[in-house]
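Hi everyone,

Forwarding the result from last night's run.
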Amino acid sequence: MSYTSWRGVVGCIKPTMRPGSCEELIRILPEGIGMIPLFLDIRDSKVAAFERAVGGYEPHIARLAEAGCDLIHPEGAPPFMVLGYEKEAELIARWENEYGVPIFTSGTNHIRALKALNVKRFVGATYFTGEINDIFANYFRQAGFEVLGMDGIDVPFQQVGNLSAQEVYSHIKKAFLKQPDAEAIYLLGSGWRVMEVIDLLEQDLGVPVIHPVPARCWEIQRRLVIRQPVRGYGRLLAEMPQG
């Protein structure tokens, strides 16, 4: 390990070849954490495409384990949520046993984040439409949550990064106001660029917002036994609750 990565190295496997969330994560990670990103090239938002994508992660996990990463994070909620809660857990256990490195997915990260904030029921927002949102909701129900909604915004998969944060704010707010009993808002997917409105949503709606990038930073810190709160991106990262 180089001196610049003296607090640990995390290997991340990005599901798509697009900029955005990788840079966002690096900017908020504490000094001393190294990151090695590898990429898949998912371009299709259909269920079948995500089912096929799961097999592409393992060669990258093997490379990152060989590189000496302390922690490996296969990103991308849809491929593993389509796989299912129980099968995902079995796959993670097999990978950890085979490669000897702790592993967490986006889905398991989001479950831990929700539990750390004592959330039992929430409303979700995604940039997908149709039956796949039901699959996402069922994944969390299998994990013991009450999902009050999983509202998708209609945007081409390759263009989600072009949505303005203000458009997404409006979409999320409308979804939440339909479910006033929700204890939190969950945002699925790292493709939309909405870090700037997380605090604003929490302020206006009075509930925590779980966004993949701050949740990722929170769990990386917890896994590497670091506790360095970062303000401006929601309660989870500002308060650093135990997971």
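The beta strands are 8-14, 33-39, 71-74, 121-126, 146-152, 185-187, 209-210.

Cheers,
N.
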